[in-house]
Amino acid sequence: MKEYFVLNLLRQIVFLPVWWLERLKKREPMTWVFGSWYGENYSDNCRILYEYVTENCPQINATWITRSQDVYNRLNSQNRKVAFADSKEGVRICRRAKFAIISNTAHDINQMHVNGITKIWIWHGHPLKKIVYDQPVTKRSFKETVHRLFPYSKPNADIVLNTSSFFSPYYQTAFRVPADKVVITGYPRNDSLFKSETTPFISGLRQKYPQSRIIMYMPTFRDVMYKDKKAFDPFDGFGFDMTTFNEFLERNNLVFLFKGHYVDIKNQKTFHNDGGRFVFVDGTMYDDLYSFIKDTDILVTDYSSIYFDYLLLRKPIILAPFDKDDYCRASRPMYFSYDDNIEGIQAHDWNEFIDIVENNKFYTPSQGVLDKYHYYQDGNSSKRVTEYILSLI
Fold it and tell me: Average pLDDT for consecutive 10-residue bins of the chain (393 residues)?
């Protein structure tokens, strides 16, 4: 481990002159690179924007940068431009591109070859819990020193895209950018919420369970284990009993879909999908997640920013902050008061959840809340983002 650290440090020191020389290279305004989730996934805002650009803007040389063989094979089979992040082609394109559209870090593409590129961050959520520079971390001074010595390790943004002025101050501090660099365009992934097609999996559920209501449960991830050294599992405690829950679903003609965050799902109790009304959702059931969730009837979530996106559907939302105190203490503090700003009825365990559903206590959040979090309420965000980037040339 120590030898690896030393070798990696030497590698970065040797690379520094290259980094600064790349700053002098003239970049091509119509060459754009896209990536998400550290180069491992093909998803989220960047994916939807990339597909919009490749399908509607032939003048733009758009390339998806990846570290995943599966993603590479998929896009290559679709005749979309794709390159491995560390390949000669990937490095060449990253050195030429004028714009990088990313969702997590510059490691979504190739962070070693982006000096002089304009980094446009379309964050993979909304800042409910603290993110990037606002996130509490240990050894902050050490990290700051590393960022000063090796600037390609720094999560610096040139422009951050946003959905509402409500979030703008939080993006400014999280990314350390001035107000004019936080631009309200809407999120490209939300365009999928306005599509008319129904995903085959949801259509199959509707046929199997006529007149049923489909509930989508999507909790957020947790950074750390809690005081009992156990990872958060919503089905381990909190009054959950599978037999009772299945009876509740059958009694009320409900289908319950659970999609855990990929960071946490390996630590959570899983049940085999047996063709019943309780379904663990995985990536085989959909292509585009937002095209999938738009056809559900009720959202259940805790502190996930899916809450803000689902508002655009104007459908009921049930809040399930089962572990709010532990979450804020041990995982992530929040930017603002959860109880005062996140509208929806709260269930604090599964018994309360069952009572809320059976007695129809849930409701659709108000138009005022929708207006608060979304300046644009349409399916044209990809078009707006593309036009904005073109205006920068």
Answer: 56 63 78 89 92 96 93 93 90 90 81 81 87 69 53 70 95 92 96 92 94 94 62 84 94 93 58 79 87 95 93 97 81 85 94 96 95 96 97 91
Going by C-alpha positions, the residue among 28, 30, 24, 23 that lies closest to residue 389 is: 30
In a domain, 371, yes or no: no
The domain spanning residue 106 has which CATH number? 3.40.50.11820
CATH of the domain at 288: 3.40.50.12580
- Domain range for 305 is 196-365
Pairing of strands 28-34, 118-121: unpaired
40 vs 72: CA distance, rounded Å: 10
- 191 assigned to some structural domain: no
Residue 365 · residue 311 · CB < 8 Å: yes
φ, ψ dihedrals at 18, nearest 5° = -65, -45
Q: How many domains does the chain have?
A: 2
Count of CB atoms situated within 10 Å of the CB of 194: 16
User: Facing residues of 318 across strands?
Assistant: 300, 345
